[in-house]
Amino acid sequence: MGSVDRATLTRGGNPVALAASGDRAAGAVSGDRTGGTGAGIRALVVPHEERIAVIAEEQRAVDHAYDCVERRRLGVDRIRSTHGQEHPDVGLPFVPDVPPEFGVEDDLGEQPLVFMRVDVADDPDGRETWRIGRRAVRDAEGDLVVISWTTEQAIRWMKARASRPGEIRLRRKLRLHGRTVTDYLDDIRPRVANRRLQEVPEAVSPAEEPPGENADAFLLADLDRARDGLMRDIVETIQRDQLDLVSDGRPGVLVVQGGPGTGKTAVGLHRVVWLLDPTNRGLAPDDVLVVGPHRGFLRYVSQVLPRLGSRGVATVEVARLWDGEVRAVDTPAAHLVKSDERMAEVLRRVVESGIRPEAPASHISDDVFSTPYRGAALTLPGAEIEALVVEARDSSGPYLVRRRKFVDTFVDRLLSRYAKALPGQRPDGALRSGIEKHGRVASLINAVWPALNAETILRRTLNDPDAIHAAAPGVLTEQEREAVLRPRVSRASEEPWTLDDLVCLEELRHLLSGDEPRRYRHIVVDEAQDLTPMQARSIARRCPGGSMTVLGDLAQTTGARQYDVWGRLAGILSGRDGWHLAELAVGYRVPDEVMRFAAPLARAVSLSTTVPVSVRPADETSLTIARTGPERLADEALARALDLATADLERSRSVALIAPDGTALLEELERKVAALQGTVAADDVPPVSVLPATMTRGLEFDHVVVVEPAAIAGQGPAGPRRLYVAITRCTQSLTVVHAAPLPELLGAPEAPALVAPEEPATSPITVQNGSAPPVPEEPTISPLIAQNGSAPPVPEEPTIPEENTTMEPDTPATDESFRSFVSSLEERVGADRRCHVHEQVRYRLIAELHGARLVPSQSPLADIVCKGPRGAVLYEVLGEGGHTYERMREAVLRIMEVEHVGGDRAEHRFLVLPQAPEPAWAPAMLTTAFDITTIWRDGTGWAGEDLATALGQAPG
What we know:
This protein is α/β, with parallel strands linked by helices. It has 7 domains: 1-44 and 196-222, no CATH class; 48-188, no CATH class; 253-322 and 517-582, P-loop containing nucleotide triphosphate hydrolases (Rossmann fold, 3-Layer(aba) Sandwich), CATH 3.40.50.300; 332-351 and 454-496, no CATH class; 355-448, no CATH class; 623-746, P-loop containing nucleotide triphosphate hydrolases (Rossmann fold), CATH 3.40.50.300; 795-950, 3-Layer(aba) Sandwich (Trna Endonuclease, Chain: A, domain 1). It is globular and about 110 Å long.
């Protein structure tokens, strides 16, 4: 290759690298920076003059697109002026192909209109070249100049793999600064005979590359941009695993589980735009509601959606979703009760208890209700009245609707008695209304079926011990009933309503009158892991069709209520079409070393979720751990924050100081930063924000300084999760400044003090680049799909003895739960061995090993254990259906459990499948993430990696 620089090297998928002689393309990275080794990469060296020519060609196309936009804008302005309209939207329907939001806000800001070119072969429209952008643009003749990225055609082209390009001859990513094309990257390019293009032969076959592997120069450059605390749209650099979820067309609730920096929020908002495209779901903007965790998220939505071509979507902060004023905060115990879906049953019972069929007894004499009315005696047997009450009570509908049914039938009976007593008078509406309002009649109606309102019922439930105790038997425990009680106040206007109370009031209004909030055809919920079950019921009521996009990360739950799996919340939110789960496992924001540092904490707080594998390249400054004395803690943290804020002279970098909530440390940091801003000119103040740990969710900064993580982790049951959120907010670096020992959950080595214990530790020690112990990578997968909660459960790993060289369990005699765990492993093995496919594959492998003159064995926990030429080998055999990724991933967990229980790790570990795996990239992922190799039956033989070792044929 000589002295020619490569513009891009990517891993997997065989993309093309472009460069100019002696002039590196903008945003270019080296092969080492992407983590690639050159295997499977085709590097094309483009002479400088050709690169300039290509950029000029693309610039002409981009200029033409903007000219078309300007022509359309002028046409709209002419129509407005002609019609003399003052409202900016009036007149737009008369202009063909003008979206409703055009003219309201057409400014893309710094975001480019066009970001991709695709050349196709054999196009049915008779054209070869297409441009893809943020919105559709037509020329004066009505021909498409730019197609919207949301169309089926564009989505298909954007998702194409370099290894299987299909109809695509060329796919070119464009990098623009404003309206100016600055660079390009061809990641799909035809093979052409051109002496100026020097091709590096492929070293491996570009099979199914896992998502996240193509961390090209444009993606990495975008990730390196300075951040201001808010996220940005990702349409230019959206990855295949994200795009799969954006364009997921299945009905029902889509749950997107994703760790920090996986782009789940951006996926949700881009999905909104996709849903609004007329060629997809064709929803109108007012059909969609986006529910976010805080106002910062709503500001992000207000910026992103218009730039992507969508306006008018309703957005709301989750705490403001319910009518009323929050005047108080529940105790933790009361919150857990009132937010649980069992509270809905308690409220239903309270409402139903208002109906008293036996009440007429106090209003009748000799089993007959009788009252004079306008010269007639209106009588009705008590038993008949009671039957009318029971009939209406047992009918369908809300409380007040059924009450109306009872009132109408009761008054009808009295009217008939009146007609018989005075046959000459004709009943009319006034007569009917008069009977209903008659004193004795109204008194009986209210005794049998009182007219209630939500506030009265909830006040009685929370203030009256008899009411809650009468409604809760079999639903709430005695302690839970006591937890929700609070002192009675004299007036309703003084009632200390909490957020949970407002949710309960909406539930009561629905029970009483059937009142429902505004309905939507699709709802997006971000940070859904912090929803309570009662809140989920309320949101589901807003979307009776059951079409939702639910975004969250169980490991980042910061509320008092924790969920181990998504099944409970998803089940409440879903309708007739059910729900499905997809997991984003590739991280695009958090640097790799920071994610590895956080991984032990993530696994500790949520066993069922995948820790993202970051594509951000390693950097020697990504992670810094500094220990100092307590009296120096605030000064040291601020000094490091200021250093980070001023380190990059070319661009302003955002820095966040994150400290424990409600502490003197937080107040001191706020005071010091405020004093700094007050004494320095505004232009010279570095962008440093001070935040409590609870306020960092959903935000991102270039640099993050977390102060005293042990204090954050120690603030209640949600403390460890808040710490996990705090340390994963960065895009460039994380600095941890601490005086107290780091939490054990972080798994990081203690930084020793630099002075004797009796002296204050004033000089921090910095552990750079790898201070955390290595953590096995989780698989980077195309979204792991589990239908209706079928994702395999992940049990806790037990504490185990360290010395045991067999695969027999070594059970602590005093730990009954551990013995139960081992028994469950044995039961699963026994169940597998009742599967004919499992046993057929297992015995064929045993025969192979015997043929290699080895002596395979088995245990109650392991399918096959064998001492081969290259050491101990452990095999996990999968039976029918075991070729899917879900089953393979579950089997990986079982291997780890077996090794832990056995107390030793085999030198080689194999999954043995009954047929070829699906998807094809799964074996490579398991090898990379867990060092577990996969083989499978292939006709009459075997296939897979390292067959020599697996079949005992490798030399020692």
